[in-house]
Batch of 4 targets.
Target 1
Amino acid sequence: ALLDARVRPFLRLLHKRFGTMLALYTAVEPGIFGALAMYETGVEDRFASLIAEAQKQWKGVGEDHSIVQLAELLLRYGVRRGASDIHIEPQETETVVRLRLDGLLRRIVSFSKDVHERLLLRIKVLANLATDEHAVPQDGKILYQSPDGMRVDVRVSIVPTIHGGKVVMRLLVSEEQALPLESLGLLERDRKILGE
């Protein structure tokens, strides 16, 4: 998939290199990043190492950089996968993180309750919520910019449950990043038809 359909010289170079004609598909940048994220490797390992580091730091003394990195990784991964929501759900013995992808909640990672409490605190700080309030629901907002430049409004909702605070983060792409018709890679005649 390519961002620009006007790359015929590149296709000829690939044809010479591989000896076969390749099909040309154009796509928008978020679609390409989303597809790459689906095949991204090592994310599970990165989650596992951050969670292990967070559990070690909990027992030790010092700043908790792993929780900061875990929160960043959750947001970045959710945005790159094109998730509409990130759910952090405390259960009796563990906390489960799920992404809403194409309308379905998919489990991506789970971790212990001590990591949950510190991650919940980090999210409250990012969303400017009361960190000492645990008995009432709270709503807030995080303005997040991913490393690839995508700006996302993250609506945070925290609801107390018997196992701890349940977090739902709704990922909303900023309006200024809505795609204009010209950026969809349509032919001129197709754009005219849609513009009518």
Note: The first helix runs from residue 8 to 18.
Target 2
Amino acid sequence: SSTLKYLDNGECRASCPVGDYPDASNICQPCQSPCSTCTSAVDCSSCVADTFLYQKRCLQNCPSGYYNDPSWECKKCKDNCLTCNSLSTCLSCDTTSKFPILFNGSCLSTCPAGYYRSGNQCLPCQGDCATCSGSATYCLSCTSGLYPFLGNCMPCQSPCETCTTSPYSCGSCNQNSNYSLLQVDKCVSTCSDGFY
């Protein structure tokens, strides 16, 4: 019959058994370890235990940019990951890309608020810093009630009652002080010419 076109151990078959492949003469040949199943002498379609399928080859470990998937295949890491241990967790980033910074298993272009860049990682700001730059204690913004001044967090300075952008930029003045009038962002006792 025309459906029996593969020769396996002296018998004609419709297909080669699992673990064999048909050669150019349609004779069933055994797959070579570490291939478990194959489509040719050099192309694996599945692998023996503890090896991973990558581009029709069986490897002990997946190459850089790929991870050892539980399906015993090498799967590609997400973009910008140099190495990863799953699709969602980068272990290192491509430092030549626009996303060289490793943070919580992702590759980022900048650190999130509350962190600063140190090399290619994000480290947390310290103390009263809400955001920082260059070091954990050089504050760009501060926790509630404090204001940045020369990298430090300071409370609103008297006679300011409230502040805007720094401890010396008043938003309102202490009404019980001699400097109770707000002129631009300063508390004064009397307004300058041109102000009322």
Note: The chain has a mean pLDDT of 90.
Target 3
Amino acid sequence: LLGRRIADVIGEAAYGAIKDRMDAVLSGQRLTFEQTMPYPTGVKDVRVDYVPRRNADGEVEGFYTLVQDISEAKRNEQALKESEARLRALTDNLPVAMVYQVETSRDMLERRYTYVSANCEPLTGVPIQTVLNDPAAFLTFIGEDQWPRVLEVEREAADRMSFLDLELVGRMPDGSTLTFQVYAQPRPLPNGKLLW
């Protein structure tokens, strides 16, 4: 590679994609960036670090380059986004069901909803953002009289790491009631909490 032009090594298209950044590093800037590169061997996603190389007087004489191929990580990231979008499309369009994900303490006294599907408000009368901001908001739908039973069944499932199957009666804002079934399975998290 010694004595060859960068464009000859990586190709004219790839060189054109990073020339401005090379000019910046040669002016003394240290750069880290991600870029899709059209190499002669194929398109790759890369993470690039440019570090100016200075002489004894502090003048920039060139630069050091570290290029990491992150194509697989980018593909995995995109696949995860697509999978999450498919799951959200499914859960948000269930006609008479709601899906949620909640993180709890082992004793069930602490809880934080991490996901609530779009049917939350139509089915319970409680807006999604309200539930995400205040986990106790479901009490207005479930009713405080049922809460001790909910905690008892949740704690039993948490102790045994077993499937939860619970029938409850919800109270809508207009006073009508809705009988519904709750199904959940706890999964331990590295932080000691549970994800349902």
Note: Helices lie at 6-10, 12-26, 71-92, 120-124, 128-133, 139-142, 147-160.
Target 4
Amino acid sequence: TGICGAAETMLVHQDVAAEMLPAIAADLQKAGCQLRGDSAAKSLVPDMQLANDDDWHTEYLDAILSVRVVDSIDTAIDHIARYGSGHTESIITESDEAADAFLTRVDSAIVMRNASTQFADGGEFGMGAEIGIATGRLHARGPVGGAQLTSCSLSHQVCAKRALCAHSKHWPYGLSKREDDFLARQSGIGRQEGRG
């Protein structure tokens, strides 16, 4: 329950809630999970604790799940945008239309269809041992392994730039005649024949 891919909230569409939620809740409660639901969820599972606004924001790190009944995919996506952590979101659906909306509009590091949130692991994605997960947008997002922590560094020394331009295939930008003349005066290195 204290893993990064643990589910914290379950949103259930109202069209299937009466049929599915009581059975899902019974299995979860039998396994020792405490459920905290909105009034619609509680009306279907009376022994569920009534959720408050803090429950939607909380990462429990425990066997607790908040449950909300929603009337549309848009309401679900809005709930995730307001309360989600940006870590991992998953939709369980047979509807390609709902899945497409979810996968393109939910802003999280990992967005999945018909998969457990516990799949959110660098090893599962072929990245090797996971060091952590990033929910921001720079420079890594999602599971972070050694390769995702690797960054590049460019030297800001004028001579280093000139040397890269003149001698390396790794620097993709050439120098204009004006830049070359300026750098030559600053560094004492002239343009080499056939380079730069």
Note: The longest strand covers residues 64-70.
